[in-house]
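Tutorial, part two.
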Amino acid sequence: MFIKERKVTVNGQRIKAKVNDVYLMFNKPPGVTYTAASHIEGNIIDFVNYPVQILPVDWLDKQSEGLILLTNDGSLVDELLREESKREKDYVVTVDKKTIAFIEEMACGVEINNPRKKGNTITKPCRVVLLTDNCFNITLSQGLNRQIRRMYRRFQYTVTRLQRVRIKELPLGTLAFGQWRKLSGEEIVGVK
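Running the prediction step on this input gives:
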């Protein structure tokens, strides 16, 4: 739950103080856990150490790296996490073998195990572009748990590096590993 107002009283009089919305982009290094749970060592909130309560928007697993948004704006979280929002996200993915044989099949959708639905799911079509013999750019509009890793595993490949480089209209750019910055007004509009 996001806190927009805090209850403060002075001499029995309630004073309302609105907390400003915070929008951060963070270049998550591998090893940082995206959870806000303070009891988990290496959690993203302790790593960023921002002075206002914020939460991560969306997720990147512990081994993955790259762009993640953090905010105290619950409406942005709701919007980006809704499946029908069809937000595009770009990833640069390196795998353990060299080949291009599965690109077309992967782009059309892949049947993967979906533990939440206790069965299999076919992923939505996506764009897959070969960058080098074993490195791809993949654009998803779906956000299943560990989706990219499970898609590649379906073709007997292991992801050795996964970096998110764009969410909607917001590219990661040159933000260094482990660094964060505030979004500009134009960037905030672009991700909403």
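Confidence is low (pLDDT under 50) at residues 1-5. In part three we will examine how such features are distributed along the chain.
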